[in-house]
Amino acid sequence: MQEIEFEGIKVQVQRRLFQRSLNLLIKPSGLVKITSGKTTSLKSLVQFLESQKDWLHKNVNKIIQEQNKYPAKEYIEGEEYLFLGRKLPLVFKHHDKKRLKVQISGDCLILLINKNLNFSKEDKRVALNKFYKSSGIEVLEKVIKEKSALMNLFPTKVSYRAQKTRWGSCSSAGSLSMNWKLIFSPPESLEYVVIHELAHLKHQDHSKNFWSLVSEYSPDYKFHSKWLKENMYEIESYKFK
Question: Could you give the CA distance from residue 187 to residue 177 in angstroms, rounded to a whole number?
């Protein structure tokens, strides 16, 4: 994929065989992408960016401002971490094991650590990352099983990833790809995404029938969608992958 720079902004160029128009997209991660036809010249791309520069700068700056609200985690005691929609303080507790271990206890996120050993910031990030990933997959597997039975819609396959811009997807073959980072969100928001993707097993589009099916099982889906959008930048500050 080609990359060009326009007024200090890196822009990915994706060329598609049958595309005639030029489309500009800014992803929530801050990635700027332009799609064009296979034969569109570089000059035409730059001219198009020039025509959209006010909109481009405005929205890139908006994303940067949102990202700056949530500096990267330091993995130190007292920091607050989202878990199923609750903000839990990180607390260190001593144990005699050589490995770090993470668990939830009451209203705290506990990092069990041998204080006689020297663990780096990266060691702590990896331990927390592993805990969140395993917890996310465990919860999603349970919810998918429950909602599939309720909706009578069953995926052919389910995989789990840590996408930056998508909470889930459904292929035409009926397989789901779910973002385990949904473990940060309230249970109802996580359930909404599962319902959304299962609904695609029946309706591959976002038609009226699709949203009718979603609303049947998640009446407050608009609220949950909004929560996920508004908290996305905080979730990315954890640097989990």
Answer: 18
